[in-house]
Amino acid sequence: MTRVAVVTGANKGIGFGIAQHLAGSGMFSDVILGCRDEQRGALAAREIANAPSNRAFVYSLPLTIGDRASHSSFHKAIEERHGKVDVLINNAGMAFKNADPTPFKGQCKPTLDVNFKGTFDFTEQMLPLIRQGHDARIVNVASGSGYLSQLRSKELQSKFSSPSLTKEELFALVNKFESDVMNGQHIEEGWGNSNYGMSKLALIAATKIWAREEAINGISVNCCCPGYCDTDMTSHKGPRSPWEGAKNAVIPATMDSPPSGEFFSDFRVSTW
Ligand code: NAP
Q1: How many Cβ atoms sit within 10 Å of the Cβ of residue 148?
Q2: Exposed e or buried b per residue across 29-56, where buried means at least 16 C-beta atoms within 10 angstroms of its C-beta
């Protein structure tokens, strides 16, 4: 039986580690790395493919999260080659460095556009293929920075965590955060003070919506925090290796009878 896994942002860091784990697991016939730089994607795929532990056909395809045309061409390529996806791991993500001079307002849209809106749009495009999968799973690499209580307003906390939150309501909330940031009033309006944190909080909320809506299609949807890892994103300050951090995404992607709508951290189900 074929089993197809897609990992976004897999040319380096945690995504590379996730792809290595999946390729070596013996559970997948095909592991596809979605990478925005074709050359670095091809190099990463070759490295994983040539490792003695590899047991899958590993290759890369161009994918820029946040670029709808790129989402569509990636979807088309997978549809033509495989007709389904069994596991999608949304790992691609970005964070401005602390030392970056871009003002808070200027960091808001680019962060939300990749970590939340782009990831959301890409997942929605891929869903028809995931519904064709067997024992299909989606894992969103979020972060502990997406914790619910960063929202100063209890009312906002209960809106984001409502079990009846819809995709439209979630987008309206995120757009309100963005406009409050632009107007310099996000603190008075009860939001947290982190664009990255909000992007990951919204991704966690989306995970729970997909988990609810896709249960009927037998798809489990979970999210995770890889932990503080030694990658380019953290300027290599994190103590955990990307290979080790990757396990937080690999566990819900490969475990027997996975839960759905959960947040994995430190290799187990944790609280939001
Ligand atoms: P990283 O080393 O910076 O790698 C990020 C990966 O995402 C790279 O492959 C990058 O591609 C790709 N990427 C970024 N923006 C993209 C876009 N618009 N389209 C396509 N690919 C894009 O970071 P990492 O530490 O491995 O992070 C992986 C995930 O874990 C992220 O979602 C991050 O938020 C999350 N996370 C990391 C930590 C940590 O301690 N490292 C902690 C919590 C959560 P390029 O190489 O082309 O830039």
Answers
A1: 17
A2: ebbbbbbbeeeebbebbeebeeeeebeb
Residues in the chain where the model's pLDDT stays below 50: none
Q: Report the relative pairing of strands 263-265 and 268-270 from DSSP bridges.
A: antiparallel
User: Do 272 and 149 contact (CB within 8 A), yes or no?
Assistant: no
CA of 14 to the centre of ligand 1 (A): 7
Question: Does residue 196 have an active-site annotation?
Answer: yes
Burial of 257 (0-12, 13-18, 19+ CB in 10 A): exposed
Burial (CB count <10 Å: 0-12, 13-18, 19+), residue 136:
buried
Return d(Cα 121, Cα 66) in angstroms, integer: 8
Helix (H, G, I), strand (E, B) or coil at 115: helix
pLDDT at residue number 146: 98
> In testing the pocket of ligand 1, which one of 36, 198, 237 has its CB within 8 Å of the most ligand atoms?
36
Rounded Cα gap, residues 20 and 18, in angstroms: 5
Distance separating alpha carbons of residues 118 and 93, to the nearest angstrom: 10
Alpha-carbon gap, residue 135 to 143, rounded angstroms = 25
3-state helix/strand/coil string of 134-180 = CCCEEEEECCHHHCHHHCCCHHHHHHHCCCCCCHHHHHHHHHHHHHH
CA of 83 to the centre of ligand 1 (A): 27
If 0-12 CB within 10 Å is exposed, 13-18 middle and 19+ buried, where does residue 1 land?
Answer: exposed
What is the spatial distance between Cα 248 and Cα 46, in angstroms, rounded to a whole number?
24
End-to-end CA distance of the chain: 36
User: What is the pLDDT, as a whole number, of residue 1?
Assistant: 79
The CB of 112 under 6 Å from ligand 1? The reply is: no
Q: Which atom of ligand 1 is nearest to the CA of 233?
A: 3
